[in-house]
């Protein structure tokens, strides 16, 4: 909490101006539609703090009665700061233009632990430069309060913008740049090397990112020099489709503290990449390799080395995985809570049996589009997994109403059931509704409503 009296009121502050009717900036819990328009693109403009009173001869000052109607001015500073904490980034900048008091309050360090910018037209590099320059006012060249930067879908973000953040924000803990496809390995290197406390990194959709390490040479796979490690625990590389096993090897060697890793649609990853991952990252709790079509049962054998630490696993549309791979997971990962195996057509009732008997604490299971799973598999689930809350059987051709009734009679806590494109009767759906009153049923039967 900085002393407001120590602030330099003559220092300019940014006002972020947007094109008309564009949803550009978000922060916290809301978004806004701007009403100011200039040259058709979003830029950052700099202005001085507003004067204490209006002095233009053609502007009539508000009467005493009108001034008394501004009840918001009666709120104490701490209440105003609490109100400001709910505003998106752009609105907070605009509040700084109202009056000198609001200017001081809007730039309170407690309100600037997070910056959220979204939109394709924003000149993000310039906006980040202006914002960080103002936030570094009290501590030259260093912004100590900023911990979270979310820049989603900003296609104009480049390595220069990320370098600005990395250079000015050593206390950064969370960075999300999903959908910013101009980001490269160089920018990621700048961030992880200059922000040692970074724990959460989302580079989903950044197709140029193929490696995360403390060395500029992506080919170096061995452990970092001098024992240095990247402190990232959460890493989302969804849709980084250029990522290969060698890159995953480097990531694993440098990010040994990973607990959450998402590799959805990283289509070049194979079982060899997963083997590298399990050598270094033994603390993973959540792992997704959905749509990694080269991952097979041998990859499941490697993942099973996580044993009881693994709680979440997504192998959706990994067509090379069969009952053999499921058996590895069921045997060693007994504390599994979530499994998404949608589209794994090699899974049968035997695989479901292994899973149900060993992972009895399972809460969410998706075995949609597994045509070899029938009512027999559902019976094993019903008799062993009493804590099941979410079950998806979409497009399971062998499922009938009898299997659903067995599940409903034993899994009273069921909250979501997906039976779309399944041949189940209306009576069976009504039976589920009677026994699982909180259950939301997703179906394609027009007779049931």
Structure overview:
- This protein is an alpha/beta fold and 449 residues long.
- It contains 15 helices and 17 strands.
- Among the domains are: 73-111, Monooxygenase, CATH 1.20.1280.50; 323-448, Alpha-Beta Horseshoe (Leucine-rich repeat, LRR (right-handed beta-alpha superhelix)), CATH 3.80.10.
- Helix content is 30%, strand content 14%.
- It is globular, with a radius of gyration of 27 Å.
- The termini are far apart.
- Residues 1-47 and 221-226 have low confidence and may be disordered.
- This is F-box/LRR-repeat protein 7.
- It is found in: Cytoplasm, Cytoskeleton, Microtubule organizing center, Centrosome.
- Keywords: Cell cycle, Cell division, Cytoplasm, Cytoskeleton, Leucine-rich repeat, Mitosis, Repeat, Ubl conjugation pathway.
- One of its GO terms (biological process) is cell division.
List the uncertain runs: 1-47, 221-226
For the biggest β-sheet, the strand order reads 5-6-7-8-9-10-11-12-13-14-15-16-17
Instruction: Specify the helix fraction band.
Output: 25-40%
Give the C-level CATH assignment of the domain at 323-448: Alpha Beta
Secondary-structure class: alpha/beta
| Average predicted confidence as pLDDT | 83
Rg from Cα: 27 Å
CATH topology of the domain at 323-448: Leucine-rich repeat, LRR (right-handed beta-alpha superhelix)
Proportion of beta-strand residues? 5-15%
What coarse outline follows from CA principal-axis ratios?
A: globular
Quickly count the helices: 15
Ends distance: 55 Å
Number of DSSP-assigned strands = 17
CATH superfamily of the domain at 323-448: Ribonuclease Inhibitor
In the CATH classification, which architecture of the domain at 323-448 applies? Alpha-Beta Horseshoe
Task: Profile the largest sheet.
Answer: 13 strands, parallel
């Amino acid at each position: 909490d900085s002393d407001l009296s120590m602030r330099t009121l003559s220092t300019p502050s940014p006002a972020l101006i947007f094109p008309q009717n564009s949803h550009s900036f978000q922060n916290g819990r809301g978004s806004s539609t701007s009403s100011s328009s200039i040259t058709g693109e979003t830029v950052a403009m700099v202005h001085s703090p507003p004067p204490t009173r209006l002095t233009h001869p053609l502007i009539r000052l508000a009467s005493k009665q009108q001034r008394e109607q501004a009840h918001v001015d009666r709120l104490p500073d701490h209440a105003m700061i609490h109100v400001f904490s709910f505003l998106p980034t752009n609105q907070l900048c605009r509040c700084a233009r109202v009056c000198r008091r609001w200017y001081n309050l809007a730039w309170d360090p407690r309100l600037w632990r997070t910056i959220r910018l979204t939109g394709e037209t924003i000149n993000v590099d310039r906006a980040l430069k202006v914002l960080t320059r103002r936030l570094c006012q009290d501590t030259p060249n260093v912004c100590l309060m900023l911990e979270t930067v979310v820049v989603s879908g900003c296609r104009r973000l480049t390595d220069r913008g990320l370098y600005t953040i990395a250079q000015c924000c050593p206390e950064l803990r969370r960075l999300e740049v999903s959908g910013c496809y101009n980001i490269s390995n160089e920018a990621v290197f700048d961030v992880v090397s200059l922000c040692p406390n970074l724990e959460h990194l989302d580079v989903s959709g950044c197709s140029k990112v193929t490696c995360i390490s403390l060395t500029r040479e992506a080919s170096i796979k061995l452990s970092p020099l001098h024992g240095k490690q990247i402190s990232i625990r959460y890493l989302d590389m969804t849709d980084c489709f250029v990522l290969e096993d060698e890159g995953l090897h480097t990531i694993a060697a440098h990010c040994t503290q990973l607990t959450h890793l998402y590799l959805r649609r990283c289509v070049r990853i194979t079982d060899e990449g997963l083997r590298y991952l399990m050598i270094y990252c033994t603390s993973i709790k959540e792992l997704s390799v959905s749509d990694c079509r080269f991952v097979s049962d041998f990859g499941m054998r490697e993942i099973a080395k996580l044993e009881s630490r693994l709680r979440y696993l997504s192998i959706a549309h990994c067509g090379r995985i069969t009952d053999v791979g499921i058996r590895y997971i069921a045997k060693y990962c007994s504390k599994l809570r979530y499994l998404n195996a949608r589209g794994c057509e090699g899974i049968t009732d035997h695989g479901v049996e292994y899973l149900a008997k060993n992972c009895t604490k399972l809460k969410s299971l998706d075995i949609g589009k597994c045509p070899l799973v029938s009512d027999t598999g559902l019976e094993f689930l019903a008799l062993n997994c009493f804590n099941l809350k979410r079950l998806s059987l979409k497009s399971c051709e062998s499922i009938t109403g009898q299997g659903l009734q067995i599940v409903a009679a034993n899994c009273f806590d069921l909250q979501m059931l997906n039976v779309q494109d399944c041949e189940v009767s209306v009576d069976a759906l009504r039976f589920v509704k009677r026994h699982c009153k909180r259950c939301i049923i997703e179906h394609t039967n027009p007779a049931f409503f």
